[in-house]
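User: Hey, my collaborator sent me this sequence without any context and asked if I could get a structure. I don't really work with proteins. Can you help?
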Amino acid sequence: MSKRMAGIATLAVLAVLAGCTTTTTTTSTGPAGDTEARPGRLAAADKGDPERRAKVRLELASAYLSRGQFDTALEEARQALAAKPDWPDAYSLLALIYASQGDNRQAEQSFQRALQLSPQDGNLMHNYGWYLCQQRRFADADRQFQSALAQPQYRDLARTLMAAGVCQARDNRMAEAERSLARAFELEPANPAVAYNLSDLLYRRGDYERARFYVSRVNAVPDYTNAQSLWLAARIEKRAGNAAGLEDAARKLRDRFPQS
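Assistant: No problem. I've predicted the 3D structure and written it out in structure-token form, which is a compact way to encode the shape of the chain:
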């Protein structure tokens, strides 16, 4: 699955629905191939300098987190901090692991420690904002998103605007959510996750013509199309009273995703 498709698959659930998924800004390539490769890689890293050792451990922690192996991810993140104490990236990932385990007290403490160490880190503010949104602390989440957007060196503006829009919609602030998502679309019109979320919001607001426009941008590209985007298109056409459009979307959904 491509990164873009993964974004749709995740945010189609997150959008203004009741899904609950933690987003991260860390990159991962998966644990070192397989279980046989992992000890050799760690042994090589452990012989090197602490910086390299910490980096390898954190990469492994991120990979295990992405696979849902939370206990192993937690141990790797702790090993990264043992090699490089006071590393904000490690505390940030540690917070995401704790959040995935439902340990909100430890997650909060880890996010706060990371922010103490790196108070101008837009990626960290984004992650913390999304965590707060998951906790339904909407005002606090919005402050973190706005702080991230205000950082001069922060470049992932569309991602944070999209997260802010999703969070605002969850708080039933639909007009604000539309502005955030529309701005995200202006910045990244080719991003299918942004287009999907904007379409979903407009559908919920009863603006079916505009909703159709944005979801059609997703479904026009086979690599971007998935069951959620076709199901949204079908619902839009049904509400709009377009029987032909409804049948077309339903046929594509049945043909491409029969198990959905």
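In plain terms: Confidence is low (pLDDT under 50) at residues 1-37. You can pass these tokens on to your collaborator as they are.
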